[in-house]
Target: Pyridoxal-dependent decarboxylase, exosortase A system-associated
Amino acid sequence: MSSISSPRHEQMSQFKVEQGQLLAAGYSMSEISQLLNRPAFYVYDRSVINQQVASFRQHIPARVKLHYAVKANPYWPVVEHLKPLVDGFDVASQKEMLLALQSGMPVANISFAGPGKGDSDILSAIIAGVTLNVESLGELQRICTLGAQTRNTPQVALRVNPAFELKASGMKMTGGAKPFGIDEEQVLQLLADIAGMPVKFRGFHIYCGSQNLKPESLIEAHQHTFALAAKLVAACPYRPEMINLGGGFGIPYFAGERRLDLAPVGASLQQLLQQYDTELANIELVIELGRYLVAEAGLYACQVVDKKHSRGTTYLVCNGGLNHHLANSGNFGQVIRKNYPVAIANRMVQTDLELVTIVGPLCTPLDILADRMNLPQADVGDWVVVYQSGAYGPTASPQDFLGHRPVSEILI
Ligand SMILES: Cc1ncc(COP(=O)(O)O)c(C=O)c1O
Model:
């Protein structure tokens, strides 16, 4: 049986190894486990988050503001840590909105996107003064009606579903029929009426997709986005305050994937800013990112509780799996399951390897942490870690499934 390759831990240079132990912010996995008194956890290293923000600031022109998409990792210490580092927050629910508000982020820099907003979501955003990224004509109607029940004028931006798509994306959210945003053609018609509506129209949200590692695809999408933005601004009854240009910066998860090179993306944005200098003058431009800022800062760690051999396969059975980390199991948007980078955290320099499949404690064949990987020979009590786990972790996982203990988190 051949092994399925994945990026080796040597390529994951964001965490140090000392005396054979993988360290997160200076702590080994068993130390973090003792610190938390928990056998399975996510650890997020704040210095890696800082590096990712710095990389954005280094390459992307300062004219483009950085917003954090809280959905990627809504763990309160992470949100609090990012508050002074970014220019705004994008939220996708009332709960996330409350986190953003309580972080002290100015309300003008918080936007609320996502289809299916309930009346209570809309009302709370209107009361708080948070900008609602409007996903449909019906939602806009409800915003107007609910706004009349409050003392505030609803702040709205129109989320546009353009005709183009973000090529080579993990998730495409525009082009063709989509539940997200209002079709570009309908937006152009709507703009004629927006001045007469009981809302404060702030601008546009043009979000094309997620998890993109190809600079040329992002550059092409930015070219289309700027052209569309200029067309929309020209059709506006008054000058909008802001345009969200989307995001989609990805991180490498799988073998053969390369880190996104932001230099050409930044250079192209600089060129577009010059080209559209007049059309977009005095309008705030925003890029919103989730996983790019936090995913590489996170490790998921769990412990081997059993080692067994079944008809030629060696299994390491751990105390956590899909219930803690659905994305790593391949059941959160992957078409074909691939291994995330995985290591045995307390045997980082051990050279005797063995082919293993690592599984979690759930009675389902979907509960796979690593499929046929060559890893240092491990035993009960050893620490399995999954890299690139700082985004879409606990909150994207079915923690109640089978009722095992929930996973713990720590930012250090
Ligand atoms: C509107 C919007 N903004 C931001 C994001 C965050 O994406 P990512 O974590 O890939 O940056 C998403 C992801 O689905 C999204 O739908």
